[in-house]
Amino acid sequence: MIDPPVLEVSDISVAFSGRRILDGVSFEIHEGEFTGLIGSNGVGKTTLLRIILGLQRPDSGEVRVLGAPRSPRSHSLGYVPQKVVLDADVPMRARDLVALGLDGHRFGFGRRSKNQRELVDEMLHDVDAERFADSRVGNLSGGEQQRVLIAHALVSRPKLLLLDEPLANLDPKSVQEIVALLHRVSSEHAVAILLSAHEMNALLPVMDRIVYVTEGRAASGTTDEVVRSDVLSKLYGHHVDVLKLHGRVLVVAEPRPEADHLPDHPTLTVS
Amino acid sequence: MSLLRLLFEPGFFSSAPVHTAVVIGAVTAVVSAVVGVFTVVRSQSFAGHALTDIATTGGSGAVYFGISPLAGFIGGGVAGGGAMDLIGVQRVRSRDLATGIVLGAATGLAALFLYLDATQSATTGVTQQILFGSIFTVSSSTIPAVVFFSAAVLLVIGAIYRPLLLSSVSPELASVRGVGLRVVGLLFMLALAVAVGLSSIAIGSILSTALLIGPAATALRLTRSIRGAMVVACLLGIATTWLGILLAYDSDYWDPSSQGLPVSFFIVAIAFLLYLLSGLAGVRRHVGRRDGDIPAREACGLGDDTTAKAVA
Amino acid sequence: MFAGFMVNAWEIATIVAVVAGIVGFFVVLRGSAFPAHAIPNGAFAGAAGANLIGINPLVGLGAFALLAALGIGTLGRRGRRDVVTALALVLMLAIGAAFLSQSTEYEPEIFSLLFGEILGVSSGEILPVAILGLACVIAVGVLYRRLLLTSIIPEIAAAKGLQPHRVELAFLIVLACATTMTVPVVGALLIFTLMIGPPAAARCFTNRPGLALIISVAIALVTVWAAIACSFETNWPVGFYVGTYSAAGYGVGRAYAAWERRRGAQLGNKAR
After folding, report:
1. Between the ranges A241-245, B88-92, B191-195, C152-156, where is the mean pLDDT highest?
2. Quick check: C176 and C195 in contact, CB under 8 A?
3. Looking at CA atoms only, how far is residue B34 from chain C in angstroms?
4. Comparison of pLDDT for B269 and A271, the residue scoring more
């Protein structure tokens, strides 16, 4: 008996203001898999994530989580959104925010049980946030806040963790740390990860699968299957070259006929 | 001609208080509209309202110290605006908090002044006068002062127009261009304070928010450009004020046994109604808008942190 | 000042301070300073109306406070929230002004509706205030965790199946309830100072949410007690002292926070 995939996205389409944002996007994620949702800015990654989370309804298609249709009450999804603004004046420690991941949706108040406090400590240890666990969340750096949000999402042990552009505003060192952290956590706790980014190179060492999105269409599979000239050319609708250089990938497009005012060399798109 | 008589009760066009009211109403409406458009764009509606309450303090203090209410309104507003800018906090949420604290202290002071007014002098109805105003009792001698201050406010706005526009719409872009954000912010706050002081004369300090925010917000819903919004807001403001004056005058005659309804009531009601109506027009135009398009914070009613980061 | 009739004032003031401290904690957390100002002012109109038709002002207060809360909560989802709050506020004030113009209202009545008249409180008023206060506190207790989560990271709360705008509406209603019971005491124009100053000061002294709530109540109690004592001595309005002491408390909190930041920076330098 094969377990149902953790996430099943089937033929999702959505249009807005006459523009097709997503057109028949389909892919699957299985337990413990690390999937990168790659595409340039504005291509619809956030929209897709919001549809998966149930925050937005697609025009057609469906999303199934653990075999069941998406329902807002299911707690099997963890989520780290893109722009979380944490005020430095808010009296909340990192520890408190993580604890809210356990019971923030429940009614009532009261001291947390010893078991719950241990879970929080364990999670803080896993994301390497122990040294600032008692600092105000608003006073933490971008990378530190990212860890706290990841801990918050994971403390309830979801099956799937969704992250919307978590690496966008981080310095290269923090990017490496967060990617390594996510990989470690994913294998330790068997959590599948779907992470959106516009740059795939940082994720190449850890990605099991890639969902490459452009012009509303998507190609999914392993990196070797998808990141190839023929597959991406078909996706883009015009010829692109995929260059692999020192373990990094460069996607290079030929100059478009309309762009005759640009200098005479190939334009670099996604790298 | 009986229709005209139905709309305009006898003596309307010849009444001197009405003449004064019409002039003052129009002038303050224009100033409020221009300043109000920027107030709404900068998400400073609370500051705008707080300044009206702080103007109350000024007005009641003026009565206590025996100086002209206009001076009190404007002076109080400027002092309050200066204080709010001094506490000058960057994030909108904390800025609203600082506004609230200054407002609270100023209101407490107003309570003191009104209490002293009532016990020390024999003036009755002072509270009502200051807070809710009565445009019909404003003497025509204040017209020059009102015009002068209004012109001053419009000149200041004109002088800082471009940096103000840029910093209101995108503080980041403005700071990159070297726009002195603190200076622009302070100048705007002072212009706002004076505008509020002026409309306090017309409509009472507590209610002048309506003239500041109402026409401006309505206009912003109807047009896209700021310049267009200012024009529309001026027209709406003048229409609102004049209609309010007319209705208030007429209301005296509706029921001979009771007193008419105050002008300020009509002005506020009309402003609110126009805003609601513009909402209906807006809904019809943006039918495709879904909840997903409103930022999560706004949709669940939380203060917006992302705008006006560098707008002190 | 602890004579028989003053006991009522002390009792009511204590209840008010506790409720203001608790509800105010979330007002500050959610950046809802403006609605916290708007709802009591709207309530004032209701009280004026109730006075006009001769029913208990508390009923008018409650009805209009609730109306304001619902108005801001529902209309605010469509339009800009701060604009809707401003317009709803002045509309209700204008209605209040209209009511006042129709009656031969005594000056002190308006004054006490706006600025409070705690020293004249009768013992019969304590019970409704206590009941409403208890209702508010229980409501906040039930919603505590959800309020925390939706206040700080609403984006994630929505993904967890919470509906932030429903929590917001519920909170506004609690706010309406809290202002209804406090307006006769501290007045419409000043209750929100009590809901803003003490909690804003409290969060300067601790990083923990639960502790910040408790400190908020403590500061509110001290503020109100000091205000009553001073008002009794000087005959000046209680509202004046509440406004001033709240601002002072906020100033002390900010100063302490600044001092702590400097001390932390110095310690950091020493460590190097």
Report:
1. B191-195
2. no
3. 16
4. B269
If pLDDT is split at 50, 70 and 90, which confidence band does B312 have? Answer: very low
The full set of domain ranges for chain A reads 1-76+158-222, 86-157
With a CB cutoff of 8 Å and minimum separation 6, the contacts of C92 are C41, C42, C43, C44, C45, C46, C64, C67, C68
pTM assigned to the model: 0.83
Alpha-carbon distances of B22 from A142, B28, B30, B148, rounded to whole Å: 56, 10, 12, 17
Considering only alpha carbons, which residue of chain C is nearest residue A85? C153
Domains of chain C: 4-271 (1.10.3470.10)
Q: Which residues of B touch C150 (CB under 8 A)?
A: 300
The answer to whether B108 contacts chain C (CB < 8 Å) is yes
Distance (Å) from the alpha carbon of A15 to chain B's nearest alpha carbon: 11
* CB B98 within 8 Å of CB B89: yes
Is residue C252 less than 8 Å (CB to CB) from chain B?
no
Name the residue among C101, C116, C249 with its Cα closest to residue C189: C116
Best of A80, A83, A84 to substitute, by most chain B Cβ atoms within 10 angstroms, is A83
A183-197 residue pLDDT tens:
999 888 889 999 999
Provide the mean pLDDT of chain B. Answer: 78
How many Å separate Cα B213 from the centre of its chain? 6
- Any CB–CB contact under 8 A between B94 and chain A? yes
Structure tokens at B76: 């109080």
Using alpha carbons only, give the angle A247, A248, A251 rounded to the nearest 5 degrees.
140
Closest C-alpha among B62, B142, B41 to residue B109: B62
Q: How far is C25 from chain A (nearest CA, A)?
A: 10
Question: Looking at beta carbons, which residues of chain B come within 8 Å of C36?
Answer: 100
Nearest to B142, CA basis, from B72, B90, B96, B201: B201
Min Cα–Cα distance to chain A from B93, Å: 9
The CA distance from C185 to B124, in Å, is 24
pLDDT at residue number B136: 66
Q: Which CATH class is domain A1-76+158-222?
A: alpha beta
Domain map (residue ranges) of chain B: 15-285
B289 has a pLDDT exceeding 90: no
Segment B236-260 shows an average pLDDT of: 81
Residues C71-100 have a mean pLDDT of 82
Residue reference for tokens 């992302």? B306
pLDDT digits (tens, 9 = 90+) for B144-203: 888 899 999 999 999 989 888 888 877 777 777 766 777 888 889 889 999 988 888 767
CATH of domain B15-285: 1.10.3470.10
What is the 8-class DSSP label of residue A164?
Answer: E
Strand partners, A244: A249
For chain C, list the contacting chains (3+ Cβ pairs, <8 Å).
A, B
Residue C149 touches partner A, C-beta closer than 8 Å = yes
pLDDT of residue B236: 95
CA distance A118 to C200: 31
Residues B306/A85, Cβ–Cβ less than 8 Å? yes
Is the confidence at residue C59, as pLDDT, over 70?
A: yes
- C246, C220 contact by CB (below 8 A): no
- Closest partner residue to C149 (CB to CB) among A53, A54, A100 is A100
Q: Does C44 touch chain B (CB under 8 A)?
A: no
Q: What are phi and psi of B275, to 5 degrees?
A: -65, -45
Q: Looking at the complex, does the CB of residue A91 fall below 8 Å from at least one CB of chain C?
A: yes
Q: Which of C159, C169, C165, C162 has its CA nearest to residue C145?
A: C162
